[in-house]
Automatic annotation (TrEMBL):
This is Holliday junction branch migration complex subunit RuvB. It comes from Streptomyces chengmaiensis. The keyword Mitochondrion does not apply. It holds the Pfam family WHD_RuvB. Has 3 domains, the large (RuvB-L) and small ATPase (RuvB-S) domains and the C-terminal head (RuvB-H) domain. The head domain binds DNA, while the ATPase domains jointly bind ATP, ADP or are empty depending on the state of the subunit in the translocation cycle. During a single DNA translocation step the structure of each domain remains the same, but their relative positions change. It comes from the Bacteria. Homohexamer. Forms an RuvA(8)-RuvB(12)-Holliday junction (HJ) complex. HJ DNA is sandwiched between 2 RuvA tetramers; dsDNA enters through RuvA and exits via RuvB. An RuvB hexamer assembles on each DNA strand where it exits the tetramer. Each RuvB hexamer is contacted by two RuvA subunits (via domain III) on 2 adjacent RuvB subunits; this complex drives branch migration. In the full resolvosome a probable DNA-RuvA(4)-RuvB(12)-RuvC(2) complex forms which resolves the HJ.
Amino acid sequence: MNWDDTAAPAEAPDGALTADRLVGAAADGEDQAVEAALRPKSLDEFVGQVRVREQLDLVLKAALARGATADHVLLSGAPGLGKTTLSMIIAAEMNAPIRITSGPAIQHAGDLAAILSSLQEGEVLFLDEIHRMSRPAEEMLYMAMEDFRVDVIVGKGPGATAIPLELPPFTLVGATTRAGLLPPPLRDRFGFTAHMEFYEPVELERVVHRSAQLLDVTIEGDGAAEIAGRSRGTPRIANRLLRRVRDYAQVKADGVITRDVAAAALRVYEVDTRGLDRLDRAVLKALLTLFSGGPVGLSTLAVAVGEERETVEEVAEPFLVREGLLARTPRGRVATPAAWTHLGLVPPQQPPGAGGQQGLFGT
Ligand SMILES: Nc1ncnc2c1ncn2[C@@H]1O[C@H](COP(=O)(O)OP(=O)(O)OP(=O)(O)O)[C@@H](O)[C@H]1O
């Protein structure tokens, strides 16, 4: 059966499943407060991303040997994979100061001119969300990156004049979650482009061990593995889960994070063994139980879980697709066999009793 969107009733979504989401990759207030203490300070300390690290190491060492400013660097990748951290490491490795700003903060070319003209020689300018800069600022950046010069326009209309302004050499580190949205002329002006991948569980284990040490928490190898496996390939989520598990260990156990303590804590926070939370499971469960695994239209699915269409599409689905649990097809959303297995449910064509309930949260 193909469940389509045409009959989707207009129901008010309540958003309850997205409140206080522990597995979101964007930084929340608490993350911002504690992340500074957990950031690796050098390339050697930076876990994983081996290829990026090796290449960047060469770029920076060569620039240092020449006594030159490093090439402009573009870092792309999902939130929480370490782009800000890497930009700070670039500055530290070059013994240079760093200035941090973001695309949305630069709405006028004048905003950018003010920042660029106050840079010191060799300074690293970190421009987060570079794809969200305004067009005039972006055009000013082209010349600044290439010639270390900007034209400041004074006046308006036919009487407007361009006053050239020399800039000290600097290194721009641009970060984006959407490399495809960058116009080619901007992309081409970066000397080094790196795409950050999601981390392997063993790499996240190392992140968890390192953070536990910095937070002065005792953690066993199995405990770190349990957290790493539920962290969706993302260091920020690994660090966040570690903090929640630490709370649990302090209140309910003797402060030591073992595998059982980690599993019990994450059961309380409803993050299952694959890193799915309530929203993810609600979407999957609706797809499997109400629509026999699909295909079903996005709007219908969203109404079934009581969430906005955008929430299902942008918050829940990307990870479900990445995990191979859900597929987006021209006919609608379809569950994969792995989705049935994960929720311990039996696909309709199989005889009842062939599946068996799985322990979603571990022991
Ligand atoms: N390779 C790594 N090794 C150890 N810790 C890491 C690594 N990458 C990221 N982290 C940790 O994860 C957290 C998030 O990293 P960071 O802020 O650099 O991510 P980001 O990619 O800039 O995210 P956003 O796109 O949301 O700005 C930081 O606390 C940092 O310490």
